[in-house]
Design brief:
By secondary structure, the protein is mainly α. The chain has three domains: 3-97 and 190-210, no CATH class; 110-180, no CATH class; 218-337, no CATH class. It is 61% helix and 4% strand. It has helices at 3-8, 13-22, 26-31, 36-51, 64-84, 87-105, 110-119, 135-142, 166-183, 191-196, 198-217, 230-240, 247-259, 264-271, 279-292, 302-307, 324-337; strands at residues 124-127, 130-134, 157-158, 161-164. A four-stranded antiparallel beta sheet has the order 1-2-4-3. Helix 4 (36-51) crosses helix 5, helix 4 packs parallel to helix 11 and helix 6 packs antiparallel against helix 9. It is globular, with a radius of gyration of 23 Å. Bound molecules: iron/sulfur cluster. The site of iron/sulfur cluster (SF4) has 11 residues, from helix 12, helix 16 and helix 17. The site of iron/sulfur cluster has 11 residues, from helix 12, helix 16 and helix 17.
């Protein structure tokens, strides 16, 4: 593989061998002035991961310096995550690294994607516009996907192999990457090394605490969450507990939050708590509901919510409204009037 590819997929075995051969010691990685940019990028990687997405640079084969920064920043970011040793951070970091690779893999050549799969001991056969993998690999990697199309009974099987598209293979590899990174963290980093990293760690700690408070306390920014109707509060607590919402409730909650002014990014962050979170798909769905397709959707009325079993915990104010948005508006109005 080319050096620039190792920098974009730094978790593969060839990339770690390449980094080892560069011969930098742990102390140099932490304190050498020549590696300042590596450490800055390492911190940036973790901060971007906390916000949901790691942005990969455009790399040319001749960009030796940028390639080395990208390659070495990966072990440095893993050291930082390991020193902090927090499950929330480990999950978010692993997921973000994996998602950023999914975005790249979809546009790689068929042979390249097969080579990445082989790094995970996943055998891939290439056909015209499609691939197959053994059903045992498929079941392992697709087990956390909830959509019906991922169920094995809905797939075309031939002699123990499952046919998949390139996009689906990239999505399954995202799972494999996340498993590998998450399973390898935290690293056993000596205490004195963590001590040397403390200025970087405190930056990450601050952002991480803010995020935990935001998503743990019900602070929805400009939106007043204590004014939400019971059905929406119930759905939000389910999302936070990692329960997958029914499609109709997911739509109701998303359209409700968009209509009261919550941003697409904040809604993505709200949904970004489950291990099978699919950033690309969630963004697409939320943007679609927000009107990117030309139609701006309103949440369903209370009677439709009841029909789908999504009306939950109705209170006194509910008996006076016919729409969850009216509930929010009335309650907000009463609050500011008094
Ligand atoms: S009555 Fe309407 S606003 Fe109240 S919980 Fe049911 S669906 Fe939500």
């Amino acid at each position: 593989m080319e050096k620039k590819d190792l920098a974009l997929y730094p978790f593969i075995k060839e990339a770690s061998a390449y980094v080892s051969n560069l011969g930098f010691s742990l102390e140099q990685l932490i304190s050498s002035r020549a590696l300042d940019s590596v450490r800055s990028r390492g911190v940036e990687r973790v901060l971007q991961a906390l916000k949901g997405e790691i942005y990969k640079p455009q790399l040319l084969s001749s960009d030796d310096s940028k390639i080395h920064i990208e390659l070495l920043s990966y072990p440095f970011s893993r050291i930082l995550v390991s020193c902090i040793d927090d499950n929330f951070l480990i999950r978010r970091y692993s997921l973000a690294e994996a998602v950023s690779c999914y975005d790249l893999l979809r546009f790689e050549s068929d042979e390249f994607i097969r080579d990445i799969a082989s790094d995970f001991d996943i055998g891939v056969h290439i056909y015209n516009n499609s691939f197959d993998i053994h059903f045992t690999d498929y079941i392992r990697l697709a087990s956390s996907m909830k959509a019906l199309e991922w169920k094995l009974v809905n797939r075309k099987l031939h002699k123990g192999h499952v046919y998949i598209s390139k996009e689906e293979l990239a999505r399954l590899l995202q799972e494999a990457i996340k498993e590998r990174i998450q399973g390898s963290l935290p690293l056993d980093v000596p205490q004195d090394i963590c001590q040397m990293c403390s200025p970087y760690i405190s930056q990450i700690h601050t952002v991480m605490q803010q995020m935990k408070e935001t998503f743990g306390s019900g602070d929805f920014g400009a939106v007043e969450s204590d004014m939400f109707p019971p059905c929406m509060m119930h759905a939000i607590s389910n999302v936070r507990a990692g329960v997958n919402l029914a499609h109709s409730m997911r739509f109701a909650l998303t359209s409700f939050l968009l209509n009261i002014g919550m941003s697409v990014d904040d809604i993505i962050s709200l949904f970004n708590v489950s291990p099978d979170f699919d950033l690309e798909k969630t963004r697409y769905q939320i943007e679609h509901i927000s009107g990117s397709s030309g139609t701006e959707y309103k949440p369903p009325s209370c009677s439709t919510m009841r029909t789908y079993g999504n009306c939950y915990g109705a209170d006194e104010l509910c008996s006076k409204v016919k729409h969850p948005l009216t509930y929010y508006k009335r309650k907000t109005w009463f609050k500011h009037k008094n």
